[in-house]
Amino acid sequence: MRAGASSGSVQGFNSSSWLLDGWMQNSPTELLFWVPPAYRTGLWRPNSTVVIGRHATRLDLTQFVHGRDWARCHI
Protein backbone atom coordinates (compact mmCIF):
# COMPACT_ATOMS: atom_id res chain seq x y z
CA MET A 1 0.00 0.00 0.00
CA ARG A 2 1.32 3.41 -0.89
CA ALA A 3 0.21 6.95 -0.39
CA GLY A 4 -1.91 8.20 -3.24
CA ALA A 5 -0.14 11.05 -4.99
CA SER A 6 -3.32 12.87 -5.89
CA SER A 7 -5.42 12.26 -2.80
CA GLY A 8 -2.70 12.38 -0.15
CA SER A 9 -4.28 9.46 1.68
CA VAL A 10 -3.00 5.99 2.44
CA GLN A 11 -4.78 3.20 0.64
CA GLY A 12 -6.84 1.52 3.28
CA PHE A 13 -7.16 4.62 5.48
CA ASN A 14 -10.73 5.62 4.84
CA SER A 15 -13.84 6.91 6.55
CA SER A 16 -14.54 3.37 7.84
CA SER A 17 -11.15 3.07 9.59
CA TRP A 18 -11.27 3.20 13.38
CA LEU A 19 -8.93 4.09 16.22
CA LEU A 20 -8.35 1.48 18.94
CA ASP A 21 -5.66 1.76 21.62
CA GLY A 22 -3.87 4.38 19.52
CA TRP A 23 -3.80 2.30 16.33
CA MET A 24 -5.73 3.36 13.23
CA GLN A 25 -6.95 0.14 11.68
CA ASN A 26 -9.34 -1.43 9.21
CA SER A 27 -9.48 -4.80 10.97
CA PRO A 28 -7.88 -6.35 14.06
CA THR A 29 -5.05 -7.62 11.84
CA GLU A 30 -4.71 -4.55 9.59
CA LEU A 31 -2.95 -1.87 11.63
CA LEU A 32 -2.37 1.20 9.47
CA PHE A 33 -0.46 3.58 11.76
CA TRP A 34 -0.14 4.64 15.40
CA VAL A 35 -1.50 7.99 16.60
CA PRO A 36 0.11 9.62 19.68
CA PRO A 37 -2.39 10.37 22.49
CA ALA A 38 -2.18 14.16 22.07
CA TYR A 39 -3.44 13.90 18.47
CA ARG A 40 -6.26 11.36 18.80
CA THR A 41 -9.06 13.78 19.67
CA GLY A 42 -9.93 15.86 16.64
CA LEU A 43 -8.18 13.61 14.11
CA TRP A 44 -9.36 14.34 10.57
CA ARG A 45 -10.58 11.28 8.71
CA PRO A 46 -10.66 10.88 4.94
CA ASN A 47 -13.65 12.71 3.47
CA SER A 48 -14.03 14.90 6.57
CA THR A 49 -15.22 18.41 5.86
CA VAL A 50 -14.86 19.71 9.41
CA VAL A 51 -13.76 18.56 12.86
CA ILE A 52 -15.59 20.15 15.76
CA GLY A 53 -13.50 20.84 18.83
CA ARG A 54 -10.68 22.94 20.18
CA HIS A 55 -7.94 21.25 18.17
CA ALA A 56 -7.91 19.44 14.86
CA THR A 57 -5.14 17.17 13.60
CA ARG A 58 -4.81 16.75 9.86
CA LEU A 59 -2.33 14.17 8.60
CA ASP A 60 -0.08 14.86 5.63
CA LEU A 61 0.36 11.40 4.13
CA THR A 62 1.80 12.50 0.79
CA GLN A 63 5.21 10.97 1.64
CA PHE A 64 4.00 8.25 4.01
CA VAL A 65 5.67 4.85 3.53
CA HIS A 66 5.08 1.54 5.27
CA GLY A 67 5.22 -2.18 4.63
CA ARG A 68 8.20 -3.12 2.48
CA ASP A 69 8.88 0.56 1.73
CA TRP A 70 9.39 1.61 5.37
CA ALA A 71 13.18 1.73 4.92
CA ARG A 72 12.74 4.66 2.51
CA CYS A 73 11.61 6.76 5.47
CA HIS A 74 14.26 9.24 6.60
CA ILE A 75 14.52 12.54 8.43
Structure write-up:
With 75 residues, the protein is mostly beta strands. The protein has one domain. The chain is built from no helices and 3 strands. It has a 3-stranded antiparallel β-sheet, with no helix packed on it. Residues 1-9 have low confidence and may be disordered.
How would you summarize the topology of this molecule?
Blueprint: E1 18-20, E2 23-27, E3 30-34
The main sheet comes to: 3 strands, antiparallel
Judged by helices, strands and strand pairing, the structural class is mainly beta
Binned, the helix content reads under 10%
Q: Element order, helices and strands?
A: EEE
How far the N terminus sits from the C terminus, by CA atoms, comes to 21 Å
Q: Return Rg in Å.
A: 13 Å
Indicate the low-confidence ranges by residue numbers.
1-9
Taking strands numbered 1, 2, ... along the chain, how are they ordered across the largest sheet?
1-2-3
Count helical runs: 0
Residue-averaged pLDDT: 75
Strand content range:
15-25%
How many individual domains? 1
The rough form would be described as: globular
Number of strand segments:
3
Could you give a quick summary of the protein structure above?
With 75 residues, the chain is mostly beta strands. The chain has strands spanning 18-20, 23-27, 30-34.
Provide tags for this entry.
75 residues, mainly beta, three-stranded antiparallel beta sheet, 17% strand, globular, disordered N terminus
